[in-house]
Amino acid sequence: MSPLLSADEHELVVELMNIGIGRAANALSQMVQDEVLLSVPQLQFLHPTEASGCFCHYMPGALAGIMQDFSGFMTGRAALLFPEERSLELVRAILGEDMSIGEISELEQETLAELGNILLNNCLATLANLLNQQIQTDLPQVFNVDPPHLLNRLTLTEDQDNTSFIMLVHIKFSLRERDLEGYLAFVIDVRSADMFVAALQEYLAELTVR
Q: Is 175 exposed, middle or buried (0-12, 13-18, 19+ CB in 10 A)?
């Protein structure tokens, strides 16, 4: 549980993320031409110092990732993370089985960037729309990293005072006979957290009067 959120607010974030991830799954399903099954999101709020150990525990091997900065009613950085060794398999599922390894490798970065853009944008846009807020996203960046160095990638450039927290969403992807475990991580600048919490509180207040 986050010290920034009440139990009701925490539950609301889980519910909203579940909706966003569901919409992202529908978009991914169209990309791979197959049904995409997702586990119920597990949500954790972590201080950056806690997050590093958590990443190493849950994701011990090399990682492939797509990150995207966002701003608006909350400011931060979102990332889609999964095992590096499975990235070509995921790209093959998107591009088609009949492509050669060479062709897939050439298109890997571009395909992963598009995948991250669709999934992260679906989650962020859904969160903002349901809360009646505005959010803007930058172009996605594809990267590869070992878990001990992941935090350096996710930390906001201007965040010299460690004034951010990480909203870590753990989901498991299943598509056809492939099995891919992935994480969504949202690094939120604490300086914008008040606006984020206020939006949650306003949403909850509106529910009580309906």
A: buried
Contact call for residues 80 and 204 (beta carbons, < 8 A): no
What is the Cα gyration radius of the chain? 17
Distances (CA, A) of 138 to 95, 120, 171: 24, 11, 23
CA–CA separation, 162 and 101 (whole Å): 41
Q: What are the tens digits of pLDDT across the range 66-99?
A: 999 999 998 888 888 888 887 877 788 788 777 7
Q: What is the DSSP string of 75-143?
A: -EEEEEEEEGGGHHHHHHHHH-TTS-HHHHHHHHHHHHHHHHHHHHHHHHHHHHHHTT--EEE---EEE
SS3 160: coil
